[in-house]
Amino acid sequence: MAAALSQDSALRLVGLWADVAQVHCLFADDAARVVLPASTAVQDGKYGALSPARPGAAWFERMLYDLWGHAAEGARDLRPWLDHGSWGHRRPMALRTAPIGPQPEPPSFLGSEGEDLHQVPVGPIHAGTIEPGHFRFTAHGETVVRLETRLGYAHKGTLGLMRGKPPRVAARFAARLSGDSTVAHSIAYSRAVEAALETEAPARAHALRAVMAELERIANHLGDIGAICNDAAFAFMLARCAWHREAVLRACARAFGHRLMMDCVIPGGIVAEMPPGSPEAIRDALAGVEAELPELLRIYQDTASLTDRVTGAGILDPHLAKLFGAGGFIGRAAGAEVDARRSPGYPPYADLQVPVLQDGDVNARVRIRFSEITESIRLVRQLLDDLPEGGISAPIVPGSGEGIGVAETFRGDAWVWVRIEGGMITAAFMRDPSWAHWPLLESAIRGNIIADFPLINKSFNAAYSGVDL
Question: For site-directed labelling of 139, which of 211, 281, 433, 442 has its Cα 20 to 30 A away?
Fold first, then answer.
């Protein structure tokens, strides 16, 4: 399969994961709206590497070895990633865990050749309330020659914690994989469980799930636009976007009982109906956003000191975006029309406009966010106007099966695979879209100055926790 993939670029690698005896992978043919899973047995602790054909598999292969001990033969990179040597034992997901060894060597980073190069280490603790991650810059003067990211500091054992629990209990762990995408990850997980147990959520539940997901998208895009502009020393945009984001979050709290809508989506549907007055509160918050959004876009585009910083900064090569399977605003700002709401698609998204740009820079990623806010406002209004009658959840009958679910987070496509036996989760994997985005950030920063890294990094806004599992 790896050899065939080298000759065929149509299939996008979605994810790579394992259980104690097999390694599984998932591909998507977005044009054909087809999802293709494949599995192979692990023999003598080894399996064939996919990273020579799909470079995005390299991070997955490192994760597989750290958690299960399965080694990818012919892999491009098998350095430790999640396992920093601080766990009580090694290979925690394996059939038999390995005892902790001697204190590990300091992490190794890839080298660069050239004269007058120096390294700048940053993190994992940063000057702000953000997730932990280490960035190792190799630079020539101020110009970045190489960036290497080291993550795993937010590892919380999510996959192990989900095992042995009923689907609705395990849903709480899925909701906390990455808190800013709690709704979308919960939808992907719930759809995987529903597929495994051949259950379908009611139409009203699908509609209300979509309302929550689009409100989550609007709030996060507002926060990102403000933060990106603030990194370019334009605090006005941060203040106005934060104002509208707060209004949206308050409407979410009134309608669904939680500002981030955590634990509101469960397998089979949603947990509660909206109280009276909720649709009006949501419409009022969105009306405020919609009224000022064109003016904010005009100010963004007409402020020369701002556009000078964001235009041409952090350019992502469209070929790399396709090769690594980038989705969300990262892929769509670099020419990739990838959106899980359209392909493979899931209810209730029958009418969806997906904005696409070609420039691949910070400016394109901001403009995609502006466009998506407008589209999400339209979708929420349409969903509330046409809200189906009926129940909001279906019973989850204990059974056995495997299922794959997908949902479009504000960052891109999230995928979940579950195996259920006798009504209990026996294996699971959750794929955040940032698996594809972190390696692309390392490429996009090359040739830029170190001082522009906060700006470029924020324009990507890849999740740390989402890939640390």
Answer: 433
| Cβ 431 vs Cβ 405: under 8 Å | no
Token digits of residue 380? 């929420």
- Indicate whether 389 and 291 sit together in one domain: yes
Cis previous bond, 124, omega within 30: yes
User: Which CATH number fits the domain that encloses residue 331?
Assistant: 1.10.645.10
**Domain hosting residue 345, numbered range:** 164-433
Six-digit token pair at 231? 């990194």
Q: With residue 394 as reference, give the H or E element that holds it.
A: none
CB atoms within 10 A of CB 416: 26
In a domain, 456, yes or no: no
> Is residue 156 domain-resident?
no
Does residue 463 lie in a domain region? no
Do residues 94 and 168 share a domain?
Answer: no
Q: By three-state DSSP, how is residue 113 classified?
A: coil
Q: What are the tens digits of pLDDT across the range 359-371?
A: 999 999 999 999 9
Burial zone of 126 (CB within 10 Å; 0-12 exposed, 13-18 middle, 19+ buried): middle
Instruction: With respect to residue 60, please indicate whether it lies within any of the assigned structural domains.
Output: yes
Question: What one-character DSSP code corresponds to residue 43?
Answer: B
CA distance 467 to 159: 12
pLDDT digits (tens, 9 = 90+) for 107-118: 788 878 888 899
Residues linked to residue 242 through DSSP beta bridges, in sequence order: none
What confidence tens digit (pLDDT) does each residue in 263-297 have?
999 999 999 999 999 999 999 999 999 999 999 99
211: helix, coil or strand? helix
Domain identity same for 346 and 422? yes
